[in-house]
Amino acid sequence: MLRARVIPCLDVRHGRTVKGVQFQNVVDAGDPVSLGLQYAEDGADELVWLDIVATVEDTRVQVEQIARLRAGLKIPLTVGGGIKSLNDMETLLYHGADKVSINSAALADPALIEEGAKRWGSQCVVVAIDARQWDGQYRVFSHGGRRDAERELGDWLREAESRGAGEFLLTSIDHDGRQSGYDLAMLDYARSQTSRPIIASGGAGTIDHLAACFDRGHLTVLLASILHRQQLTVAQIKEELARRGYPVRLVKPSVERPREAGGSW
Amino acid sequence: MKIGLVPLHAGNLGSLTASLKRLGHTVVYWNTAADIRAVDWVVFPGVGAMRDVTADLERRGLLRPLEDMRAEGQPFLGICLGMQLWFETAEEGGQGLGWFRGSVPRLEAPVLPHIGWNHWEATPATPRWLRAYADQCFYFVHSYRVAPVDETQVVGLTAYGGVFPSIILDRGFIGTQFHPELSGEVGQALLQDIFTQLA
């Protein structure tokens, strides 16, 4: 049985982890390399590293840090932020990313998805999408949620999938950083538009929020504020999810609950 | 141990290389025939599309030497695409090496690729040392599966959509559909056990 995935997000700015509320008012949350390794030790299923200013300020992500993280990291790593070309993708993959996440550049040049997928396989290409309710539809925004991409979410999901996106990282701009729960309606809608895995992002504040997401069949969640503010650790979150009967991978196999234990989730 | 890593297409050897180095092994990339030397293990890493891979190995002068090593009993580890490549034909198009009889069909599931942590179950053919890892979670990312003609080669099974072989073993060859190098501590331990148990 495929386990639910719990993925901490490292929002990185100038080499430091930060967390903002609705993409604004960022606060320092530590060194991303040591934080990433700590999350992995606690039982994170993957890591996502997003350089949140790379696109806006046109800088490149910190490849040396990525390499340092990879040297110690034993789980998958997705890196995004400021990726504009196949060259950028190759640099990140070479330094230890397993997947690259592209957002604004994919919107500006959708062929980039195809080229990346053709070169490294679809599973290497994560298309990150920031969307919000706008004008009675789910609308896509680029450049860290600042610019209207003039695309409807379903249209973009279908196009990106057909071009070879292997996975989506879907962030609700309305819910991001508020810790009031994931945007389940938007996730349901996105699920109906694509057959690729979707990572739910934006809004996790409690374990109930994660449970609500899993109950609707969305098995992959991204976590940021809930961890950065040290309200809960990855281990605490996963142990509690397991206790409630959700199929999660625990790092100590001896405490993993019996498989296929039924349940209606 | 000395390990010859055969890059398939460009890039993305970082995680596997890091994993092998953490385990204390020496890694040599075999880009062309000139890179080939005596090693304890040859590893086919697992990312990319099967299309053109065989032709690419031939162009790089690797195909013939690899065939010879295979005949001489050189141990091989294949991961994901690196294992799929050993079979005959791929549904996505392209010719495999044909070292194993069987095809590489697409998985059938509502959501693809199959991405994430899943466990595998032993078969009657699973050796005892490998059974220690049965029922534990490993990291998968793939849309295709192997379908060996000889079922005794299947030593691990995983369910996603349908049930598919997640570990194959035949003499000096072991292939995993999952990525041990991305599967945390248990993945590291399995990699090391593969190298020592099957050498």
Describe the structure.
The complex is a heterodimer of chains A (265) and B (199). In chain A, strands 1, 2, 3, 4, 5, 6, 7, 8, 9, 10, 11 and 12 form a twelve-stranded mixed β-sheet that branches. Chain A contains eleven helices and twelve strands. The two termini of chain A are 13 Å apart. Chain A has a single domain (5-243), classed as TIM Barrel. In chain A, helix 4 (86-94) links the parallel strand 5 and strand 6. Chain A is an alpha/beta fold. Chain A has helices at 32-42, 54-57, 63-72, 86-94, 104-108, 111-120, 153-163, 184-193, 207-215, 225-228, 234-243; strands at residues 5-13, 16-21, 24-30, 47-51, 77-80, 99-102, 125-134, 137-142, 147-152, 167-172, 198-201, 220-223. In chain B, strand 1 (2-5), helix 1 (14-22) and strand 2 (26-29) form a beta-alpha-beta unit. Chain B is built from six helices and 13 strands. Chain B has a single domain (2-197), classed as Class I glutamine amidotransferase (GATase) domain (Rossmann fold), CATH 3.40.50. Helix content of chain B is 24%, strand content 29%. In chain B, strands 2-1-3-4-13-12-11-8 form an eight-stranded mixed β-sheet. Chain B has helices spanning 14-22, 53-59, 63-71, 81-84, 128-131, 184-197; strands at 2-5, 26-29, 41-44, 76-79, 89-90, 102-104, 114-119, 121-122, 137-142, 147-148, 154-160, 162-170, 173-176. Chain B is α/β, with parallel strands linked by helices and 199 residues long. The chains are: A alpha/beta (265), B alpha/beta (199). Chains A and B meet through helix 3, helix 4 and helix 6 of A and helix 1, strand 7, strand 9 and helix 6 of B.
CATH class (first level) name of chain A: Alpha Beta
| The named CATH superfamily of chain B | Class I glutamine amidotransferase (GATase) domain
Q: Label the CATH architecture of chain B.
A: 3-Layer(aba) Sandwich
Low-confidence regions of chain A: 253-265
Q: How many discrete domains of chain A?
A: 1
Q: What string, H for helix and E for strand, traces the elements of chain A in order?
A: EEEHEHHEHEHHEEEHEHEHEHH
Biggest interface, chains and residue tallies: A-B, 41 and 42 residues
Helix/strand-derived class of chain A? alpha/beta
- The parts of chain B where pLDDT drops under 50 for at least 5 residues are none
Number of distinct beta strands of chain A: 12
Number of helices of chain A: 11
For this structure, what is the CATH class of chain B?
Answer: Alpha Beta
- Approximately how much beta-strand content do the residues of chain B carry? 25-35%
Q: What structural category arises from helix and sheet content of chain B?
A: alpha/beta
**What oligomeric assembly is this protein in?**
heterodimer
Number of strands of chain B: 13
> Might you state the CATH topology name of chain A?
TIM Barrel
CATH-level-2 architecture of chain A: Alpha-Beta Barrel
Quote the average pLDDT of chain A.
Answer: 88
Tell me what portion of residues of chain A adopts beta-strand conformation: 25-35%
Outline type of chain A = globular
